[in-house]
Structure formats: structure tokens, C-alpha cells
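Form P-L/3: holo structure prediction, ligand iron/sulfur cluster.
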Amino acid sequence: MMLLHVCCADCSLKMIEAIKSDPEMKEEELNLYYYNPNIHPQSEFTARQIAVQKIAAENNIKVIIANWTPGDYFQALEGLPEANRFNKLNRCRLCVRLRLTQTFKFAAENKYSFVSSTTQTSNYMPIGVILKIGEELAQKNGVEFYHPPQINCELKTSGFYKQNYCGCVYSLLERMGEKYGTNKRGVNY
Ligand code: SF4
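OUTPUT (holo model):
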């Protein structure tokens, strides 16, 4: 049985397709785990949650929803100076580690054989960094980390809410900066 950590519906569908296309995994029972304390604000967390539940129902896959606990995210970034929070590699590494740590914990407690994560479709972090975190946690928890042989990141999906930023408040400010020319500390009125 595999526990797939998911961050949004779009990335979930890409990973579900990748898992089901792997002959060694296509028969494995799959559950989705929505644990994303990084997502800001709560309305965004809820919009993505509803979209994930919609695609899970359409694909007849069980989904487990963890509460929105933003304090977990800010605690994970605690040692990172504010200036470095706009360095994606620094903050995303901590964010992925936080979400995978909780996913592995839940998987070990509930006797899953495999853990995987939609963070593997991310263009925010090199895949090598994500795999290293996954493999380290796999060893620690005695649950295998699964990386599909192929992920079609160009897969076009529709029919549900799609976000236009990665999730955290920093990525939201970066997105606003690209779109409206604002600085990283907020909107210039
Ligand atoms: S950009 Fe995405 S992966 Fe990186 S810290 Fe923010 S929410 Fe997490």
C-alpha cells in the first residue's frame, strides 16, 4: 500500500498517472495524504483541499486530510534568516523535509509499504535534493520512498481549481512581484 503526499490536484494527477504507468506499481493500493502547513492563506489551503478531494473521488482513491497547521511551517523555517527565505533552495528544502517527515511518520504508524510525494513534480527544487530527503527518511522509518521512472510534468489537466503560486506566503509574494512588479515585502500602494 502506498501513501502519496499531495499538495494540489494538478500535481496529484501527474503523480497518479506516473504511478499507474509503472507496471511494478499499478496494482498497489494508493491513498492520498494532504498535509500542507506551508500553504497560505487558509482559503487557499481549503480551495486546494476541495480540488484534491474531487479528483480523489473521481479516481476512486481514498484521501486523508491533515489539519491546516501553519505554525509547523514557520517553526520549520525558524533557523533561516529572513533574507534567506527568498532563496528557494534554502526554504523549499526545509518545507519538503517538514511535509515528508510527517508523511513518513503517518505511513509508519499505519503500516504503509511505500511513501511518495507530488513534490517530485516541483520545478522549485532539484529532484536530487528531494530524493535525498526521501531516502534518508525511508531509512529512518523503515518505509520505502518511491520515485516513478517517468513523470509527465507537461500533462494537461482541467476541471478543478488550479493555483498560480507554489503555496507559501513567500512564493505568493514572489508571484505578485512577477505579476505586478511589487517588492518582496508586499504590495507598493
Ligand atoms: S515555494 Fe513551495 S516548496 Fe518552496 S517553501 Fe514555498 S510552498 Fe514550500
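COMMENT: Helices lie at 9-20, 42-58, 70-76, 88-109, 127-141, 169-180.
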